[in-house]
Amino acid sequence: MQNTNVTSLRKNLFGFLERTIKYNEHINVSTKDGNAIIISETDYNDIMETLAINTNPKLKEKIIEGMNTPLVDCVAENEVIW
Q1: How far apart are CA 44 and CA 21, in angstroms?
Q2: 27 touches 9 (CB < 8 A)
Q3: Which SS3 state, helix, strand or coil, does residue 55 take?
Q4: How far apart are CA 37 and CA 66, in angstroms?
Q5: Which pLDDT value is given to residue 75?
Q6: Domain range for 61
Q7: Domain count, the chain
Q8: Low-confidence ranges of the chain (pLDDT < 70)
Q9: Which residues pair with 2 in a beta bridge?
Q10: SS3 for 3?
Q11: Distance of CA 46 to the CA centre of its chain
């Protein structure tokens, strides 16, 4: 994560955004009123998906159940289930 202040952000906005988008580099921007984090849309979407999964008890339970299933009980990738 890169730290910067709001003045530097204004001067170099395009460069900061480019690094955030291309390399998923988070930018911590400090201001006199507090800090803000700039993240890529990809990272934002990943966070939102994780939150959605974690707030859905049934889905979370199914994922945990799948993680705890022994490999021998799983279907091989080339098997067809009808």
Answers
A1: 11
A2: yes
A3: coil
A4: 34
A5: 75
A6: 42-70
A7: 2
A8: 79-82
A9: 27
A10: strand
A11: 3
In the block, residue with structure tokens 């952000």:
9
pLDDT at 82: 62
pTM attached to this predicted model: 0.69
d(CA 35, CA 29): 5
CB 12 within 8 A of CB 38: no
22: domain CATH number? Answer: 3.40.1620.10
How far is residue 80 CA from its own chain's centroid?
33
In a domain, 78, yes or no: no
User: Could you tell me which of 44, 33, 38 has the C-alpha nearest to residue 3?
Assistant: 38
CA dist., res. 41 & res. 5, Å (int):
21
Is 75 contained in some domain?
Answer: no
| Residue 79 belongs to a domain | no
CA distance linking residue 76 with residue 21, whole number of Å: 37
